[in-house]
Each structure stands twice: as C-alpha cells, then as structure tokens.
Amino acid sequence: MIVESEADYVLALKRNHRHLSEDVKDAFTGRYTQFTYSTLDKDHGRVEERIYTAFRPQEVLDESQYESWKNLSSLVQVERLVTFSDGTERRDKQYYLSSLPAEAVERIGTYIRGHWGIENRLHWYLDVTFREDHCRARKAYAAQNLNTIRKLALAIVSQRKDKLSIRKRLFTAALNIDYLKELLKI
After folding, report:
1. Do 14 and 26 contact (CB within 8 A), yes or no?
2. Per residue in 113-133, pLDDT tens?
3. What CA–CA distances, in Å, run from 8 to 29, 101, 123, 124?
C-alpha cells in the first residue's frame, strides 16, 4: 500500500522476520559499498552518538530473500553508543529496510530519529498526563482498551489551541460541561 501510494518507507526489521533479520545483521561486515552518516547529541547527562550505515540489498542478499519487499533499495543499521555522566556506556544496534536509496542515508537517519521523537513524546504525555505507567489494569484487554481511550482523549484535547496545558484542559473539561462540549464539538 505504501509503494502503491507512491510513498517511501523506512521500517524497523524485527526478529519476527528471523531469517531476513539474521542475514541483514550478518551483512554489516564492512565488505560492501556503505554510506554512513552520524550524529552526536548531548542531553540529560549523557552523550549519544548514532551511526547510520546503509547499503544496497542487491550487494548482499539473493533477490528471493527480499522479493516480498517492494522497491527495497537499502538496508540500514543504526548503531547507538550512549555514554552516561558516570562513565558507563551502552551500545546497541537496530536494523531497517527502506525504499530510499542507500545514498540517502542522512534522510533515512532523519526519518528514523523523527519517528522515535514522536514515540517518546507520545509516551511522555501518556505517562505524565494520564499516569499510564501506574495503571494496574491487566485483565483481558483492559490495558489495551484504556490505552486506546487515552490516545483518543489526547488527540481530542491536543487539537484545542488555547493557553492551557493538556493536563489543565482535561481538568477543565472534567469540571466544566461547556468546555467539554467545545472540545468534543457537540
């Protein structure tokens, strides 16, 4: 559907594609024509370096290994090295498939980083505003249902453009039926 819409994709390669995931991971040996881009961020008492490496799948994989991925043009590895203020380090790697050419590694890196920014911001709102991490709903689909309701409420409240914070908008809506109606556009 993405390709048919004439759009590009950058998709995280997870372990549920075990064979492809293992082959891509093994391919990052440095023997192939690679394109790299790196960033360095200093924030929250840590230094985080990200090294984005991309190359063409045709150099590494048989076509049969990736034929189900339409327009696959690059395999991407993101290596993160985080150095904390106490001197400890953490290193991890994540792999991606993309329809963008390997030469566009900087743009791919920007998309990957942008996605995590959205995810982190959403989680922060759900945790801080709705205290989602303190929720003890565990039975059946209760946690999943509550998460969906919280995201819907967040989307509705976020559309309102006034000087109140999201938390204050929720509080005001709980106390003022007219404000609630305005939020819901009833």
Report:
1. no
2. 877 666 667 777 787 787 877
3. 26, 10, 26, 28
Q: What is the three-class DSSP state of 163?
A: coil
**Contact between residue 50 and residue 109 where contact means Cβ atoms under 8 Å apart:** yes
**CA-CA distance, 186 to 148, in Å (whole number)?**
21
Beta-strand (E) ranges in the chain? 10-12, 35-43, 46-55, 74-84, 89-98
Angstrom distance (rounded) from CA 106 to CA 109? 5
| pLDDT tens-digit map of 37-63 | 999 988 878 899 999 999 998 887 777
Sheet holding 35-43, edge to edge: 10-12, 89-98, 74-84, 46-55, 35-43
Write down the domain spans for the chain.
10-102, 132-184
Distance, C-alpha 65 to centroid of its chain: 25
Distances (CA, A) of 99 to 70, 90, 116: 8, 30, 19
**Model-level pTM?**
0.65
